[in-house]
## 1
Amino acid sequence: MSTVSVRDVTVAFESVRVFDRLSLDVEQGELLVLLGPSGCGKSTLLNAIAGLLEVETGQIWIGDRNVTWDEPKDRGIAMVFQSYALYPRMNVRGNLSFGLRMAKTPKDEIDRRVAQAASMLHIEQLLDRRPDQLSGGQRQRVAIGRALVRDAAVFLFDEPLSNLDAQLRNELRDEIKRLHHRLAATTMIYVTHDQIEAMTLADRIAVMKDQKIQQLGTPLDLYYRPANLFVAGFVGSPRMNFVEGTLEQAETGPAFAAGKRHLPLDGYPFTRPPEPGRAVTLGIRPEHIALNGAGNWDGFTVDIVEPLGADNLVWCTDGGLSLEVRTSGEQAIRPGMPMALGIDPRRVSLFAAEGGERL
């Protein structure tokens, strides 16, 4: 039961600085996801917390202990890697208990912890099998169970589902979510590049790019109020639509203009007073665009329809601008149909064209 605090940490590989005075606080009992593209530094940060990488400056605290220079085994953490890394000659029971046996834990306690972890992960019937007799999902459950038996205060997950197919990823994601609920007091830090994984698992998400945290907040914070253009485009599937334009001052107040398209911005929550003439990017989620005959942007034509069952993804174009719209799968929409788009200014996001910060 511990918090994790990364305080002004710098990590460098010879002359290359990966992080420069990065700070992050993880609350006790929360599941925090480090989300970002490959190379953004999320696994490096996790390895620094685990003690697998030395920090150049700064401190790492777990609970009330400064563990910056402690060995990984002394930090009170358990880690699940992308690779299963199971011992091939041991059965599941042996793999789960190996670390406890090396620590000379009493046999009764080992049996109790192994049984408890196996029950949580629904692998009781697999305890006498070897890794080569298991599916990929079962092997990953064993890898998670090996961490569980340690009874650690902090669990670290480094892209544990990336080697699995789509169905297994969904199943294991559900198991990790249930595990987090059962171990409510245990702090978890989870690394992934999959934003759906992050949105479904996290209490909070730290979105990373270029070795910096771009935004830290709840999944809904990131989805509805992204801090910058990168977060807006990275979080959400399908991704947010973007339209380049400028701010202008209309008779009724500030408005967005993009060629012949105009959108009054009544009700938009500006973070600072709008500056007429400023180049901006307007972002709108596909599900926040209405397909109807009374839209404020008319003159569009349906280009492509992607049926997904419950939803349709509909691409609409006016010859110069193309927008993706998510609508009910029950709507009969065909390519070539004329369409007007309804856009609510309270549901858009505006970003500075230079720098990309939210306006």
## 2
Amino acid sequence: MKKLKESTQFKKDLKRIKNNPKKIAALKEVLQSLRETGIVPMEYNPHELIGNYKGHMECHIMNDFLLIWIIWSATL
């Protein structure tokens, strides 16, 4: 199981959508999958970003609701 760390911006955005149960449910589904398997289901169109966001991933939870995350690889 992976540990997810919420950014300050994530917390602010979460407050903005707290009254939208459809977005909250979809976000919970994506975060649970990401936490348990490290993979986002293909229905959310996960893909790598380019440019200033190189090294980040993004998925479309809803048309106007995106999730961006960084995959940290631990080398021992």
